[in-house]
From TrEMBL:
GO terms for molecular function: DNA binding. Residues 9-106 form the HTH hxlR-type domain. The keyword Transferase does not apply. InterPro entries: HTH_HxlR, WH-like_DNA-bd_sf, WH_DNA-bd_sf. Pfam families: HxlR. The gene is hxlR_3. The keyword Nucleotide-binding does not apply. This is HTH-type transcriptional activator hxlR. Keywords: DNA-binding, Transcription, Transcription regulation.
Length: 106
């Protein structure tokens, strides 16, 4: 495989989107819910700073995996939900989860 083929490789593109320490856990938290508030996501994430969480959410939003929804109340609320593209990751991440659990048994 040459560099041009690698640059356009679907696996490389997929891993670029999912790479990031917290992105799989963010997606895991969104799969079971219609939408989740930023604060709820942050509380469900072990030891992640709000800044890093916001950066990872922004990257997922830029890749059209999640959608950011702002509600102008007092105080303002921000929700996140999976896009149709993001929902397609569910079975893939479930298989990765199962595979990782199998690794624990070796």
């Amino acid at each position: 495989m040459n560099f041009e083929e690698f640059k356009n490789c679907g696996l490389r593109k997929s891993l670029d989107i999912l790479s990031g320490k917290w992105k799989p856990l963010i997606l895991h938290n969104l799969f079971d819910e219609d939408q989740v508030r930023f604060v709820e996501l942050w509380r469900n994430m072990p030891r992640v700073s709000k800044k890093v969480l916001a950066e990872q959410l922004k990257q997922l939003e830029d890749d059209h995996i999640i959608q950011r929804i702002e509600v102008y109340n007092f105080p303002p609320e921000v929700y996140y939900k999976l896009t149709e593209k993001g929902q397609k990751l569910g079975p893939i991440l479930s298989k990765l989860h199962a595979w990782g659990n199998e690794l624990n048994s070796y």
